[in-house]
Write a structure and sequence with these properties.
446 residues; alpha+beta; seven-stranded mixed β-barrel; five-stranded antiparallel β-sheet
Amino acid sequence: MVFMSLTMLNANAQSGTLPVMYIETQNHQPITSKTVYIPGTYFIIDNQNPDLNVGSVDSPMSLEIRGRGHSSWKGVKKPYKIKLAEKTPLLGMNKHKHWALLKFYEPTVAGMQLGNIMGMDWTPSTRPVEVVLNGDYLGLYLLTETNRISKNRLNIYEQPNWNEDENTIPYGWLVEVDNYHETNQISIWEYDIWNLSITYHSPDSLSSAQRQWLIGEFQDINSAIYDDDKTNSKWEQMIDVDAMARYFIIQEVLDNSDGFHGSFYLHKDRDDGARWVAGPLWDLSCNQRAKTDYTFRMKTSYGFTPHWIGELIKDEDFCCAVRNAWEEFYPFEVQSWMEYIDEHLLLCGDAFELEKDRWNYTNQEPLEVRVEQLKSALLANIEWFNTHLPVGANSSVYVAENKEVVKVEYVNLAGVRSAKPWNGVNIKVITYDDGSTSTSKELVKE
């Protein structure tokens, strides 16, 4: 079916610096539903990389499109969910049918890359793209892979809907700790005064046996996490502690208030020792405020329940996993992450100027200023967290005691190590005889 018309190419206000995705719905129907797909066509023109073009004005490709999101759907500029007729590799990403068009948001780009750096099982890729819908220029979006179990996404076993086999029901899940009510959801008492809502995405239609197992599973996990005895760590038999520690670091570095109570995904593969694994990431934000405590303790403009992290941070095994993961990241990966942010965001500057005009932004700061502000906030969060690494219920600060120093190195902002301090900002790395390290920031002026 072909709905595309030449008016799609006449939409003005394109920057010419980014790929443009042209979408036309059947009979130019408006997209008003988050559940009902509308048929349409699309093509993508990338003048900078013509090999990545998909379809054309004369030969568009088929798709279906609907709205998506919760609070974001209430905004003037809408996000969308797209289902292609054929699996297609869009803009260099792995081929798939399912995609999302998210509002352009700098922390999303930065946070997804941090997920890659931290070694999460799988993290969605994003590409900036300008969108023209039914001849109307909608501005700048992030074309994004969606969280799904499949070969080219989260590549784990996926159990079928309506499964009654008790041997396979415990495996192949993708769920989300959610702060919105959904029909595909279970709810348990997490604590005396609040509920824990779990949205199940895969499988998404449960038999009574699946539902009963899922409820019982999270009741058991919840009980283990809230156990007063933080030395038994029974929850580690059900949840991967290392992945949870890395997820915690990501939320703290971003200062993402939603981290553990909304868009908090967990998945479980199929093997003898399968445990729930934190991720994939989704819906990331950065408050860009002065960090004075762990994010889950800091006030926001809205009320929320922190879910689990307040208990996990009391567990010494969890805190040890946090410190180990942090030593892999800090300071060695920081500079390359900052460079990635510049490289992948600053190229959107021209399109962002058109975005501001299209949606009448009150804040007219150029993108380069916003990127610098984001980087400054992230670096400040990193330095705060580095001096407030958690150690469990009996202490609040990690201190290396009764250990022999075996090596001292200095790392500059380019990540280069030296036995002597560099002129300027240094990260001093002390290695002890038990293999642990501690770090501190030093400024040297010659």
